[in-house]
Design a protein that fits this description.
Blueprint: E1 4-15, E2 19-30, E3 36-43, E4 46-54, H1 55-61, E5 71-78, E6 81-92, E7 98-106, H2 107-120, H3 130-140
Antiparallel strand pairs: 1-2, 1-7, 2-3, 3-4, 5-6, 6-7
Length: 141
């Protein structure tokens, strides 16, 4: 058995200074990798990006700015509801800059997903599945 939690959300990808367009995001939590949440962004059936995120950092980002480097989160107010702003910095572009995406999600939807993950594995009770990890490492050798 693979205990896992999934949630599909419509998030908003920022384009330009203020424009946004919808992207589908599938959040996945697998208790065999208890510290991580995987998010896959897609649009029109194409996978745009896949990121493996720190579950605790995602939870913290709902309350205050967190992150340095490739992934950063912070709460923002969007009128009637609160949002989670997620910034992703990727590979270098040919012009010397770096790929950068900003995505917004309804904070309540992310909080609901995280609550389900906490029901499965409570924060502080995470235990990595060492046998699975070692099998994966040796399979790559």
């Amino acid at each position: 058995m693979k205990p896992s939690v999934h949630k599909t959300l419509v998030m908003q990808l920022r384009t330009g200074a203020t424009d946004r367009f919808p992207v589908l995001a599938r959040l996945n939590y697998d208790a065999r990798d208890p510290y991580a949440v995987t998010v896959m962004f897609s649009h029109d059936g194409r996978v745009l990006a896949r990121w493996r995120l720190d579950r605790e950092m995602l939870r913290t980002g709902l309350r205050r700015p967190v992150g340095a480097g490739d992934v950063r989160f912070r709460p923002v107010s969007a009128g009637r509801w609160e949002e989670l702003r997620m910034e992703f910095f990727g590979d270098a572009r040919p012009d010397g800059g770096c790929r950068h995406a900003v995505v917004f999600a309804r904070a309540s939807a992310v909080e609901s997903f995280l609550s389900r993950t906490h029901d499965m594995v409570a924060p502080g009770r995470e235990r990595p599945y060492v046998d699975d990890f070692l099998a994966e490492v040796f399979a790559e050798s």
